[in-house]
Design brief:
This protein is an all-alpha fold. The chain has a single domain (47-437), classed as A middle domain of Talin 1 (Up-down Bundle). It is built from 19 helices and two strands. It has a two-stranded antiparallel ribbon. The protein is globular. The N and C termini lie far apart (103 Å).
Length: 452
């Protein structure tokens, strides 16, 4: 009995109270659950976990129709224009003006779906990569339009050149101006603040990109002004070399943002999320599954591609028969419709006091247009033997550089208000009026037949 009592009173070793290998065996790790109580799927960010798998038609339609904000939801009421625009193209191909109008309107809800699906997909990945992914998907509409336009030949080159600069102007002046205006007009705040990591890197890149874009135009116009002609081939070669360099710059920028300085951007964006008073409501909303995000993107891209083809086919009629200038079509009409979804997203973020997110979308979209989309269309034109160069009109080039300088000066102090936003929008209206009256060149530069 003494031996039994002695064995009974022996205390266990301290290490026996710790579960074995809990820090090294992954299968002992407790499952993660997000704010809605959904088990988080491996590889999915908790904010983007839907709690479902596969595709559920009713949930899919309901969530897509709800969209990201009230304005985006109202845009979805335009979806009946999509089948109507496609049907009219085949039923009455002679109604050129109506085909253009219907397809122009139909592009907005289709682009909005790309933006929403991209945002839902971006929630499922880390913050910084999500912003890059969402911005890239938002640029798909622009890439599709550029590719369809360049496939039409050299006659589309003036419209593409105007659309490149028009896209950047719409982002920097109209969209950013609306962000400043909508975010600053709320009575509960006087100014909105943003981090220098977002604003300074973005504006610095835009200055460099703007210079790169206009150098071929400066080269050509300087020689023409000196009475020298016949340098179209050299301008084309400079444009193609510039396109390759700009693509390399985009790669460096992406590596900088997602790899070497990822932690800075992630910290800034996570802090920005905490400023959103409605964040708890946004997190509580039902979300698309990964499969549903892909399905939504496929549907939206199919619609956008069809609509873009039908829209581009009517541009010659609008320019020649309705006497709307190439400058107005490219600088104003095309960018407004292709950037509608991105603009709605950015303005909604500014309203929620998430100015770093809004700036990341606005400046990111502008940088992608300058460093990715523009080089792509130049290189594709090169492959198709078309003279797609960067010999912009002097009017377009000067307006672009001035817009970048104006926006850079507003972003320098790290604050914004509704006055700065109003001024940006007013400047954009002045540019739009000037573009409306800008005449078409008799012999557009770069439209000299097939290039080498």
């Amino acid at each position: 009995m003494a031996r039994a009592s002695q064995e009974y009173t022996v205390e266990p070793k301290p290490e026996s109270t710790v579960p074995p290998d809990i820090s090294t065996k992954k299968h002992n790790t407790l499952p993660r659950f997000n704010h809605n109580g959904h088990k988080v799927t491996k590889g999915i960010h908790p904010d983007g976990e839907s709690g479902r798998m596969g595709i559920h038609p009713w949930h899919f339609v309901r969530i897509c129709f709800r969209s990201t904000s009230r304005v985006s939801k109202f845009v979805n009421f335009l979806w009946p224009f999509v089948p109507a625009a496609i049907a009219l193209h085949f039923a009455r191909p002679d109604l050129h003006l109506w085909i253009f109008i219907l397809n122009y309107i139909a592009m907005v809800p289709a682009a909005n779906l790309i933006g929403f699906a991209g945002q839902e997909l971006a929630r499922k990945v880390p913050k910084v990569f999500g912003i890059v992914l969402e911005t890239t998907l938002g640029s798909v509409v622009e890439i599709v339009l550029f590719m369809i336009l360049i496939s039409k030949g050299n006659q589309s080159v003036p419209v593409i050149r105007a659309a490149i600069l028009g896209s950047i102007l719409a982002n920097l002046l109209l969209c950013l101006g609306l962000c400043f205006l909508v975010g600053g007009i709320r009575p509960d705040r006087e100014d909105q603040e943003f981090h220098e990591a977002i604003s300074e890197v973005g504006t610095g890149l835009m200055l460099v990109a703007g210079m790169g874009l206009v150098v071929p135009a400066v080269f050509s116009n300087a020689l023409n002004g000196a009475g020298q002609t016949g340098f179209e081939a050299e301008t084309l070669k400079i444009s193609r070399g510039t396109a390759i360099i700009l693509l390399f710059a985009f790669g460096v920028y992406t590596f900088f943002q997602t790899k070497t300085h990822h932690s800075i951007y992630a910290e800034v964006l996570e802090a920005d999320e905490e400023k959103d008073a409605d964040r708890h409501k946004d997190l509580a909303k039902d979300k698309l599954t990964l499969t549903e995000c892909i399905v939504a993107l496929v549907i939206a891209l199919a619609c956008v591609s069809l609509i873009a083809v039908f829209l581009v086919e009517q541009i010659p009629f609008i320019v020649e028969e309705k006497h709307v200038s190439d400058a107005f079509v490219g600088l104003i009409l095309v960018p407004l419709v292709e950037k509608a979804a991105e603009h709605l997203t950015a303005v909604d973020e500014a309203w929620d006091n998430q100015m770093n997110f809004a700036l990341a979308h606005v400046l990111g979209a502008s940088i992608q247009t300058a460093l990715l989309n523009t080089p792509l269309v130049v290189i594709v034109g090169w492959g198709l033997k078309y003279d797609m160069d960067l010999n912009f009109e002097i009017f377009d080039s000067v307006v672009l550089i001035l817009a970048i300088i104006v926006v850079s000066s507003f972003l320098r102090d790290g604050k914004s208000n509704y006055l700065e936003g109003t001024l940006c929008v007013l400047v954009y209206i002045i540019v739009a009026i000037s573009a409306f009256y800008y005449p078409n060149p008799k012999e557009p530069a770069g439209n000299t037949g097939e290039g080498g």
